[in-house]
């Protein structure tokens, strides 16, 4: 059997290396996403670059790359100065790549330069895309439209327990001068790196299972670069925040640009400390409102009481005037009636006398018994007239006395002196039935000589007849 023509493995590797070097002599500017980055003991940075595609962002290409230590000193510093952050997983980058093939380590890309403006542009593009999508779906302003409770005391905080921002927030909250008490429940979450989005969403889901336990959600972290904050521009995270049923307050710790999370939150503040200050100020405003309401209520009660006292004095004055007027008028009427009664009696007597004299001539011709009878009749009539006069005078006097007694009996001050009292509520409204009062009510009693306040200990309602 003839020997098959062959080459060694190393010779094949040399051919591949030579072919790649001849085919790709110049570096390329390549767009990719950093899925993983590691630094070894010698200071070299090893990266895994991916290109994602489709709705599920499944990698369609993957390659290893390296930044040698001497190159990273320049590249890393330049990138950090331009973006405010270091290279990390999850960033989309535009890098200058030289293609190399090694007999032992295979194909690799050596990164010799980077364009930071592309990363910043990608972050801003992601930010704008997220805002537009949220607006198109009609959920961009949903959380801002939730009602912020008057008292924010039960707080669900999404942060990292080790984050300086969380410590600053708790210190500011606990040392508040008015001494307000807050109940803070921490929902641990990563706040930096490519896992931030999933971690924050999981924390929000845990809060959603206990909505009744909280008044608001607090999302805080310390300061960071734009690349560090890219997770807070993602659609998934911001969609959760925008549709959350509790108001969300953010203090993500950056002073220049607002993240989309800030834009969809109910209230966005610059730092975690500013969030704590806002919560304390919110309580101060609520307390000031309560104090103002108490002052207004006291003034209203005082004015209403003064008004009712003035009305009572006016009614008493009118009653006294009316009683005095009625008594005076009755006296005047009696004075007018007395002369009329006497005059009428005299006229009646005079009329009878004239009648008797007119009949005297005729009476002289009748028998003495007839004259005596007429004299008795005259005497009886005169006595009757006198009796009628006395009865009329007595009747009018009794009537006046009865009217005076009735008027005196209706005098409120006399009624109060008999042991009765006028019962009113604190708002001045009179109480007319036992059903209108309850145990613990505070009432005002109008008594003879003044008023008294009392509190109801118990009530007993009389059983009504069926």
* Amount of helix: 40-55%
Strand content: 15-25%
Structure annotation, total helices = 11
Instruction: Determine the oligomeric state from the structure.
Output: single chain
Widest sheet: strand order? 1-2-3-5-4
Kindly, what is the distance between the CA atoms of the first and last residues, rounded to a whole number of angstroms? Answer: 129 Å
Number of strands: 13
Largest sheet: 5 strands, mixed, barrel
Low-confidence blocks of residues: none
Instruction: Give the topology string: H per helix, E per strand.
Output: HEEEHEEHEHEHEHEHEHHHHEEE
Overview features:
single chain; 466 residues; alpha/beta; five-stranded mixed beta barrel; rod-shaped; 13 strands
What does this structure look like?
The protein has 11 helices and 13 strands. It has helices spanning 9-23, 69-83, 116-136, 164-174, 196-208, 235-242, 260-264, 272-358, 360-364, 368-409, 412-417; strands spanning 28-39, 45-53, 58-67, 92-102, 106-114, 154-159, 183-188, 216-220, 248-251, 267-269, 422-425, 442-447, 450-455. The strands form 3 sheets. A 5-stranded mixed β-barrel has the order 1-2-3-5-4. A 5-stranded parallel sheet has the order 7-6-8-9-10. A hairpin with a 3-residue loop joins strand 4 (92-102) and strand 5. Helix 4 packs parallel to helix 8 and helix 5 packs parallel to helix 6.
Outline the fold blueprint.
Layout (H helix, E strand, L loop, with lengths): L8 H15 L4 E12 L5 E9 L4 E10 L1 H15 L8 E11 L3 E9 L1 H21 L17 E6 L4 H11 L8 E6 L7 H13 L7 E5 L14 H8 L5 E4 L8 H5 L2 E3 L2 H87 L1 H5 L3 H42 L2 H6 L4 E4 L16 E6 L2 E6 L11
Parallel strand pairs: 3-5, 6-7, 6-8, 8-9, 9-10
Antiparallel strand pairs: 1-2, 1-4, 2-3, 4-5, 11-12, 12-13
Helix pairs in contact: 2-3, 3-6, 4-8, 5-6, 8-10
